[in-house]
Amino acid sequence: MTNLARISETWQITVPFDVRKILGLRSGDKVAFEQNENGEIILYNASAGALERAQKAFEGVAEMLGIKNEDDVQALVDEVRYGR
Questions:
Q1: How far, in Å, CA of 66 to CA of 43, rounded?
Q2: Does residue 27 fall inside a structural domain?
Q3: Fewer Cβ neighbours under 10 Å: the N or C end of the chain?
């Protein structure tokens, strides 16, 4: 797939529809540009990337804390909020 975008006089571009769809971009989302080891610039949905990093960081924590269902989550929230 090849999509082109023109750079405006104010250095802005419009992300093509197909690319927005693939990246799951919505109005207000942030995109990130990263250079890989081959020197290529990679564009990705920074919002989705942050969520994926957070999910990986918390992977296994529920099991470690013995959280098995929504009631366990609520009990933990109550404990943190109210010291119960």
A1: 38
A2: yes
A3: N
Residue 57, in any domain of the structure:
yes
**Count of alpha carbons within 13 angstroms of residue 1, beta-carbon side:** 7
| Residue 3, both tokens | 């999509």
- Structural domain for 66, as ranges: 17-82
How many domains does the chain contain in total?
Answer: 1
CA distance 5 to 11: 11
Residue 1's pLDDT is 82
The 10s digit of each residue's pLDDT in 10-57 is 999 999 999 999 999 999 889 999 999 999 999 988 877 666 777 788
Q: Hey, what are 20's tokens?
A: 């927005």
Angle (nearest 5°) at CA 30 between 28 and 36: 160
Question: Within a domain: residue 3?
Answer: no
